């Protein structure tokens, strides 16, 4: 750590996921997730009509250095591309031996995780569920409910985001609507 930083607080609205300053919002729209949904025809068709916001991330900014903890809320809005629920891009950490904790504040979703050697796990997220993502596991979240899915995440501030493998090969598991209900597919 290079210099002393000072204690601070933010206020989190559990219903909307909104975080007060100095948090910064990062908005991802449908067009930012090119090539990631299974049904590419449904994706192109939706994008030709609209470019909805799939999720907002409210990042509580700290120095990106070892020793600090970064955190954010993520709000994934309800919706689907074809039969597949709106999800985050998903990433490995650049420093792969770093973990993360997600705690659900509102709504209903899944946390999907996978390793580079082909293992996968899914955890159902509902308010009060706090999930541990160990080192080496890529992670993606999705909203399988009818209201915003809101969760709070904490991770080592120097961990970094590595999207390359996900953009290249996608995620092993998907969550699709089957007979009106979410189903996790391999
Ligand atoms: O970066 P994405 O894979 O699009 O996911 C969006 C966000 O989801 C979580 O909240 C993570 O804690 C964030 O680090 C990440 O940026
Ligand atoms: Fe992460």
From TrEMBL:
Single GO molecular function: glucose-6-phosphate isomerase activity
EC number of this enzyme: 5.3.1.9
Top-rank lineage group of the source organism: Bacteria
GO cellular component: cytoplasm
Gene Ontology BP terms: gluconeogenesis; glycolytic process
Domain (Glucose-6-phosphate isomerase prokaryote): residue spans on this chain: 28-169
InterPro entries: G6P_isomerase_prok, RmlC-like_jellyroll, RmlC_Cupin_sf
Keywords: Gluconeogenesis, Glycolysis, Isomerase
A Pfam family of this chain: GPI
Matching SUPFAM superfamilies: RmlC-like cupins
Coiled coil: none
Swiss-Prot/TrEMBL catalytic activity: alpha-D-glucose 6-phosphate = beta-D-fructose 6-phosphate
Pathway: Carbohydrate degradation; glycolysis; D-glyceraldehyde 3-phosphate and glycerone phosphate from D-glucose: step 2/4
Similarity comment: Belongs to the archaeal-type GPI family.
Name of the protein in its database record: glucose-6-phosphate isomerase
Biological source species: Desulfocucumis palustris
